[in-house]
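In response to reviewer comment 3 from the previous cycle, which asked for concrete evidence that the modeling workflow produces usable outputs, we include below a single protein chain processed end to end. The sequence was submitted unchanged, and the resulting structure tokens are shown without manual editing.
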Amino acid sequence: MAANTIDNRMLCKMFLAGAKSLEANKEYINELNVFPVPDGDTGTNMTMTIMSAAKEVAGLDENTDMKVIAKAISSGSLRGARGNSGVILSQLCRGFCKVIRDVEEIDKETFSRACEKAVESAYKAVMKPKEGTILTVAKGACEKALDMADDPDADLDTCIDEVITYAKEVLAKTPEMLPVLKQAGVVDSGGQGLIEFLSGAQKAFRGEEIDFTINTSAAATGKVKVDSLAADTSDIKYGYCTEFIIMLDKVFNIKHEMDFKDYLESIGDSIVVVADDDIVKVHVHTNDPGLAIQRALTYGALSNMKIDNMRLEHQEKLFKEEQMKNAASEEQPVSMEHKEVGFISVSIGDGLNAIFKDLGVDRIIEGGQTMNPSTDDILNAIDSVNADTIFVFPNNKNIIMAANQAKTMVEDKEIIVIPTKNIPQGISAIISYVPEMSPAENEANMTEEINNVATGQVTYAVRDTEIDGKTIHENDIMGIGDHAMLAVGTDIADTTADMVEQMLVDSDAELISIYYGADVTEEDASALCNRIAKAHPDCDVELQFGGQPVYYYVVSAE
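The workflow returned the following structure tokens.
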């Protein structure tokens, strides 16, 4: 029989069970994406977000108090947040934890207040909240929790059950709130992910048998972090990679942070110090980890301590494996020379990466449609660029929120996120940068410029559906525009040509840029380029190798 309160041990069990449930249903959630593209990533993003926090929780002692558990959930999900759905999920976790961290046990009233704070935090994180999404499902769950808190006959078990039941009812109505969901014949994927998490947590609360083992491999928590500066030479200056979290017991303001960074720089390099509420995440390479630990102890207790000897052979092996998977990213050394302005871009594909490097980008974050980088990935990139002002180009609408979340966590640099939704917009924005302009002027100029770029992307369908009046069958070729499905067919070249025709309707574009992907031969791409150039003699048509996965072609018109 379920208890009527949730103590620290039960909270851990519920959170880990919720994470496992979300992970188990990841692919099903991915399949609910409106566009039936092979990079459906809502389930993946939510899973990697929650697993980042689950890893923190799984490492806690069973007697850990509620405040530390809440911090592990909040901080872990915040740093691991990927994609819009992941960022919203992290904010739900963070808001919930702001209430429960101050209690020893969670009763029905505390649960309802925590749900209310969770929804408030999530809505604040979204600039233009849209109903029919995970936000709507979370709001419905919150409303039911508040109703149940006023019911004197309902215990906590009944409350949780009613919350989930009503959340499912709200989820079922999402297609009526968002026409695009109704057209595709699916419910909101983020809302489904939230239901899966809550359902798993409920099973743990009811004492059902659950495997609480959390996969802490790179597949679950993101790519392995290996520092290239430490691994690309046999003569390592600082041999110990030292990481820990400080649980603050005193004020830690900007001055304290700078003083601590200065001290770490005196004993090592590769410094990362990220302060978040009452914890500080620290990373340093040093020859004496004890010195870093002693200084950190003056600010509070330590947890999640990890010290690796980077001179050992197995670290070299890890580096080589990571280098093969993320060659483009690993080739970029940390920018040591100070500069006024720096640039960070999300990109994937050898050709596209090379284009951004040629345009002066300091750091490329490997990712995009098939893998959204986390907030922590963006923070690490920001830390590696030694500049006063850094422009970040997400180049994907599903990465903008994570970039903005990273921006709020940086205090020693000015971070400007240009809301680029795709690669062509990112390229256009960087090209329009004017060194003589101020950062604010460039931000306004870039933001205006990206609105002048029309884009189309060509890929294949992973399921049958109907979108924008077009019937789509599994394995059909789709040409997806900025706001609509532009073309559907069975031939890549024909569909791409049809898509371009639709992109140019009522357009005065003068330049068409075609980036062909990893699965397209240069010969086929050249033939397509010539075909489009012949059909549109008034436009300059450029062909470039992008090397991007999943998408055969990415096309821009401006």
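Residues 53 and 75 are 7 Å apart (CA to CA). We consider this sufficient to address the reviewer's concern, and the full set will be provided in the supplementary archive.
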